[in-house]
Amino acid sequence: MMIYKYLLGPLLLLQGLWVRKKTPVLPEPVDQTSGSLGHGKPIKLLLLGDSSAAGVGAETAEASLLGQLLKNLAPAHQVNYQMLAKTGQTTAGMIEALKSQTSQSYDVVITALGVNDVTAQVPVKSWLKQQQNLLELIDQKFSPQMTYVSGLPPVREFPALPWPLNAYMGQCADDFNTALIALCDRQDRVMFHSLRGYPPEAQAAVDGFHPGPKVYALWAQYLSDDIAKSVIECQH
After folding, report:
1. Over the stretch 143-180, which tens digit does the pLDDT of each residue have?
2. How far is CA 119 from CA 31, 207, 216, in A?
3. Which one of 2, 78, 88, 186 is separated from 28 by 20 to 30 angstroms, measured CA to CA?
4. Residue 108: CATH number of its domain
5. How far is CA 5 from the centre of its chain?
6. 161 vs 19, 114, 124, CA distance in Å?
7. Nearest Cα to 76, choosing from 215, 227, 190?
8. Angle between helices 213-227 and 65-73 (to 10 degrees)
9. pTM recorded for the entire structure
10. Is residue 4 part of a domain?
11. Which tens digits make up the pLDDT trace of 92-136?
């Protein structure tokens, strides 16, 4: 990878600048980042992450990851939720943001971080240490029954990225995922959630970079199924 980076460095840099210039900036659709929805046995949910966690690529709050999670969970549960997510967020930035948060208990914490660390070219070893620090901080401040760590999406398939930038960034994302899976396997009450292998109809948003509505719907459905099996069933 290092040889690939140095040989193609100038081209990758130019392509990165071109992609940044031509890619439309999509809004964050979620305006209510905390609240309570539904009736039934309470469940507390905390969503942490970058623009994907913030729902960029969905046209409405209801179509975002949070909106779809609430749609799936609220019919049978009172979901008390909070979202801490913003465009451009990195793992290091999230750690700093959480340090100022009040400690409280959550049943479920979901993280979605890493793409901005890839674009910032954070070394995989440094990023993995940041992820470990993040998981430790989550456990200390929020004591969740389960933390779901979302993997990185198939970056090499992003329509917005030309070759060879897509190949290089895709390999970086693959390396992050491999390290992240191993980290999650070593943790208690932590589950890695893959964002790979979605059906063809689950496509990117109009910017060719962020998840589209069908991706958010499937992502939320798979998470909701895991939450039902790993957290909600244990509460009965």
Report:
1. 999 999 999 999 999 999 999 999 999 999 999 999 99
2. 27, 16, 22
3. 78
4. 3.40.50.1110
5. 26
6. 7, 17, 21
7. 227
8. 40
9. 0.95
10. no
11. 999 999 999 999 999 999 999 999 999 999 999 999 999 999 999
CB atoms within 10 A of CB 136: 12
- What is the four-CA torsion angle of 115, 120, 126, 128, rounded to 10 degrees? 0
Distances (CA, A) of 30 to 51, 63, 66: 11, 9, 8
Cα distances (Å, whole numbers) of residue 52 to 28, 76, 167:
9, 26, 21
Q: CB-based burial of residue 132 (10 Å sphere; 0-12 exposed, 13-18 middle, 19+ buried)?
A: middle
Domain annotation covers residue 6: no
Residue 228: strand, helix, or coil: helix
| Contact status, residue 165 vs residue 22, Cβ threshold 8 Å | no
Host H or E run for residue 170: helix 165-185
Report the domain count for the chain: 1
| 3-state secondary structure at position 123 | coil
Residue 132 in contact with residue 92, Cβ under 8 Å? no
Asked, for residue 29, whether it belongs to a domain, the answer is: no
Work out the pLDDT band at 234, boundaries 50, 70, 90. Answer: low
